[in-house]
Design brief:
Elements (H helix, E strand, L loop, with lengths): L7 H10 L2 H11 L12 E3 L3 E9 L2 E8 L2 E6 L6 E9 L6 H26 L7 H5 L10 E7 L12 H4 L19 E3 L13 H7 L6 H10 L1 H5 L1 E2 H11 L14 E2 L1 H39 L4 H10 L1 H11 L2
Parallel strand pairs: 5-6, 6-7
Antiparallel strand pairs: 1-4, 2-3, 4-5, 8-9
Helix pairs in contact: 6-9, 7-10, 10-11, 10-12, 11-12
Length: 329
């Protein structure tokens, strides 16, 4: 089960991704080049709670329990076949994501095998031998599972592994045969891996704006160039953008609201607040570091001899920096 505690903001984002229109747009825009492969009207909510029996330990079944962020079942347009779609939302980089997604997908596939085996045995479809042992006939097939990792952190620079091989410490002796070691690749979705123009919902604006969150001038120029669009942004799109970018002025905006919102003004106010907060935090951090330095100098010099050393450490910036580095502050 997930170890991290979700913030209210994350909960709201997952609620947004649960919307069939947004969920379909996420997959169509990120994986299928904007082609409308997944239709909102044929999506069915799947249970995100996953439970699978994983063999026996000390004579007892080992139960694995995991929770997906958002998962849906889709019947494809041209056939009766279906596909299981899952989205894992990440505000921060996850350095074990390939192994995590591999486990989630394996649980989904194993669950399908168990259901097929149970149904086959109940209906007496399975012959003795290979079919009864595996729980499946030669003709039985599993539904494909597609998982995407939606990274919406402010940095938008994923420095984590993109595949299981990226996580492995492969001995030099085995490097010529690396292809024999099973790999597992993740479908990473962030502003650097997609074309924003492939999206039809507010995800387009989300992917346009996320990379600019720490670039006030870049954000200002972008909004000025698209002023007419963002001053009259559809309310539902504004709601989705406000959740991903955490825009205070639009905090009370609801997904079902109609009309338009002025996203330009709201984002400009947000960027100003973030800048002021950054300056205040910088001052606080600087004061904390100087106080730590004074404490160290007092301990080292003794109260009677510390005055001159402290005076120099506070007034001489170069000397102060040298002491920060020396003491690891």
């Amino acid at each position: 089960m997930k170890g991290n505690v979700l913030t209210a903001m994350d909960d709201e984002i997952y609620e947004g991704l649960s919307d069939n229109e947004i969920f379909a747009d996420l997959f169509n825009g990120a994986l299928f080049g904007g082609n409308q492969v997944i239709r909102p009207d044929i999506l069915e909510q799947e249970n995100e709670k996953k439970v699978v029996r994983a063999g026996k330990e000390s004579g007892r079944r080992v139960i694995l329990r995991r929770i997906r962020d958002v998962q849906k079942l889709s019947v494809l347009r041209e056939s009766c076949l279906a596909v299981i779609l899952a989205a894992e939302g990440q505000r921060t980089v996850h350095y074990a994501m390939p192994a995590r997604c591999m486990l989630y997908d394996a649980i989904d596939y194993t669950g399908q095998v168990e259901r097929i085996a149970k149904e086959g045995k109940e209906k007496g479809k399975l012959k003795k031998g290979a079919e009864y042992l595996s729980g499946m006939t030669r003709e039985d097939r599993l539904l494909p599972v597609i998982t995407i990792v939606f990274y919406y952190g402010e940095e938008q620079k994923w420095d984590g592994p993109l595949s299981l091989h990226d996580m492995l410490d492969i001995p030099p002796e085995l490097e010529p045969w690396t292809e024999c070691i099973q790999d597992y690749r993740i479908n990473l979705v962030c502003s650097s891996t997609v074309k924003s123009s492939n999206f039809r919902t507010g995800l387009r604006e989300v992917f346009e704006l996320l990379p600019l969150l720490k670039d006030k001038e870049g954000m200002k120029e972008f909004l000025e160039a698209r002023k007419n669009d963002f001053m009259h942004l559809e309310a539902k799109k504004g709601w989705l953008v406000s959740k991903f970018l955490n825009v205070p002025a639009l905090k009370e905006l609801k997904a079902e609201e109609k009309g338009e919102v002025d996203m330009c003004t709201a984002i400009e106010e947000m960027m100003d607040e973030r800048e002021e907060l950054g300056i205040e935090r910088g001052k606080e951090k600087g004061e904390i570091r100087v106080n730590q330095l004074i404490e160290i100098l007092l301990r080292q010099s003794g109260k009677n001899d510390a005055y001159e050393e402290i005076r120099r450490a506070v007034t001489d910036r170069e000397y102060q920096k040298k002491l920060f580095d020396e003491f690891g502050i």
